[in-house]
Design a protein that fits this description.
heterodimer, A: two-stranded antiparallel sheet, 11 helices, B: 284 residues, alpha/beta, 9 helices, 12 strands, 27% strand
């Protein structure tokens, strides 16, 4: 068999470097990420069923309780779970999967190729976007069918839904990537990342009505993005009358955008500066 | 264009004050298969990872294909191929098939082989559609090599490529490396197996305590070719052994004495292993 093994050798000396187009490499990475995810059947089932399972459990226990503002707890909870789903599919997903890939040497292998580093992150972002979209459709469907969730009819509310989702998931994606700097290895990743996610869910108004939490807890939660995402989702799915129950007495759209925007910028800076392609044990 | 693939002088790297590489010099010609031999902790992997662009050096000059690997560009990376020592990504967490792996890797390079060509070269054609996690250890290592060569590198780094292979798989693998070398690929091979270095390498460099002790063709390393031979046989009083510069004369004398066959006659030159062990035993 005669194969031109080193054709590149001769050409490299005489011609300029023509890398493959950025777009084609991005597409390849997105396909790699999606195929890898889709073929891990247990992970797929768990990823999509877990938030729904939580919805069913909490809905069954507390769902019928009326809370002030003419709203049932189930509606508040579904809005919270929609935000928590975005958080899980971005922050938790990347915070755990990236250290595992770093441990296995997958990132080291990629770093030794001419692949532009941005392609790796684009692949992850496409995966997060698709997982989150499917997740959202499932949560909305279950919410509407079983928990009295009202899909908004005004375009302005859908617009809010869109920007809160996009801004929130972007911030949490970068936050997840940043978090991999403090995770030593793949084995400890779930032990570090999952508690962060669970604690934030408890204090950010996912499982409990936010206004009913102790003041100090509200204050801590206000530093993190999830609280603002749940608040944004309540503004989409709950009647405006419920605004009075929020700590500030309003939906605070401006502040939601500000806090999530700050996390986005901070996450970007930290990710770019701290991202490692090799495990610490590997020097 | 220089005919030197790798030029290293005075390379130094320290970890927490301990020198892992301590004034290492090395030249690898284009088209050469060069093997680095040395015990664990001698500085082999550190050196190779500096050459691959993974680690920073603390001192010395390094040029790989005419460029400083510490300032690696995509263009430079497209001209080298790397087969790493310990990677589990093909085993773990990968549900991609052989073809998908090689195809995605090819997509990062400016002028790759067709993925099927690379797969055929490493002898995985009938495993093309198998998921990498289902391959045996030897097959996975072949896939590693396919991923390393699909970009048609001018220089290929092979870091302990056959660790854990059975003898037959190792022989097949050697054939693959020889065909790459025949096609003109420069290869830097690190290995623990001296027979592997002897079979594949044009020259070997023995490294210990962060320095190169000696460089030469495997047949003449450490004065092997001119070293005294050992003659062994079974005499009337049991096993006998004689070290001599004239083994032919000794054998002729023995033949006369025994009047024919000499029982269990063996004439031995020091093996590469003997030479190597002597060298690393006394680093001076």
């Amino acid at each position: 068999m005669s194969v031109d093994l080193t054709g590149a050798a001769a050409r490299a000396r005489t011609t300029a470097y023509h890398p493959p187009s950025l777009l084609s490499v991005y597409r390849v990475r997105a396909v790699v990420e999606l195929k890898t995810f889709m073929r891990e059947r247990e992970a797929v089932v768990f990823t999509f069923s877990f938030p729904i399972l939580l919805l069913v459990i909490f809905g069954a226990v507390f769902g019928r309780q009326d809370i002030s503002g003419g709203v049932r707890f189930a509606q508040v909870f579904v809005a919270g779970m929609i935000a928590a789903g975005l958080f899980a599919s971005s922050f938790q997903n990347l915070g755990i999967s990236i250290p595992i890939e770093r441990d296995s040497g997958a990132l080291k292998r990629l770093a030794g190729t001419p692949m532009p580093p941005s392609a790796y992150f684009v692949g992850k972002i496409v995966l997060v976007a698709i997982v989150a979209t499917v997740q959202q459709v499932l949560l909305l469907a279950v919410g509407v069918l079983f928990y009295g969730l009202h899909l908004p009819t005004e375009g302005s509310r859908w617009l809010t839904y869109l920007w809160v989702s996009v801004l929130g998931i972007s911030a949490c994606t970068l936050l997840g990537i940043s978090a991999t700097a403090i995770v030593k290895n793949g084995r400890t990743a779930p032990a570090v990342i999952s508690p962060i996610a669970i604690v934030l869910q408890f204090i950010s108004g996912v499982f409990f009505v936010f206004a009913a939490l102790p003041g100090w807890m509200q204050t801590i939660a206000a530093f993190f993005p999830l609280k603002w995402m749940t608040q944004g989702m309540r503004s989409v799915f709950l009647p405006d009358g419920y605004q009075a129950q929020e700590p500030a007495g309003s939906w605070e759209h401006g502040r939601i955008a500000l806090v999530l925007g700050l996390w986005l910028v901070g996450g970007l800076l930290v990710s770019v500066r701290t991202f490692r392609w090799r495990n610490k044990a590997d020097g | 264009m220089s005919e030197v693939a790798i030029r290293v002088s005075g390379l130094r790297k320290t970890y927490q004050g301990r020198a892992a590489v301590d004034g290492l010099d090395l030249t690898v010609e284009r088209g050469e298969v060069f093997s680095l031999l040395g015990p664990n902790g001698a500085g082999k992997s550190t050196t190779v990872e500096i050459l691959e662009g993974y680690r920073r050096r603390d001192g010395g000059d390094v040029a790989v294909l005419g460029n400083d690997p510490a300032k690696a560009t995509a263009e430079w990376k497209s001209r080298i191929g790397i087969v790493l020592q310990r990677v589990d990504d093909l085993a773990q967490s990968s549900e991609l098939t052989v073809r998908e792996w090689v195809g995605s890797m090819a997509a990062y390079f400016p002028d790759p082989m067709r993925p099927d060509e690379a797969i055929e070269l490493v002898g995985l054609a009938d495993k093309r559609d198998a998921r990498s996690s289902s391959l045996s250890g030897g097959q996975r290592r072949r896939l590693d090599v396919a991923l390393g060569i699909v970009g048609r590198p001018e220089l290929l780094f092979l870091d302990e490529p056959t660790t854990g292979f059975d003898p037959e798989a190792r022989r097949q693998f050697w054939g693959l490396i020889e065909s790459l070398a025949d096609a003109g690929t420069t290869i830097l091979l690190t290995t623990h197996y001296l027979d592997e270095a002897e079979r594949l390498a044009d020259r070997v460099g023995v490294i210990n305590a962060g320095r190169i002790l000696e460089v030469g063709p495997p047949a003449t390393l450490g004065g092997r070719a001119s070293a005294a031979a050992t003659v062994r046989w079974i005499g009337p009083d049991g096993p006998r052994e004689l070290t001599t510069d004239e083994p032919t004369r000794v054998v002729l004398d023995l033949a006369t004495r025994f009047d024919g066959e000499v029982p269990e006659l063996v004439v031995e030159r020091p093996s590469l292993e003997d030479v190597y062990l002597r060298m690393i035993g006394s680093p001076e």
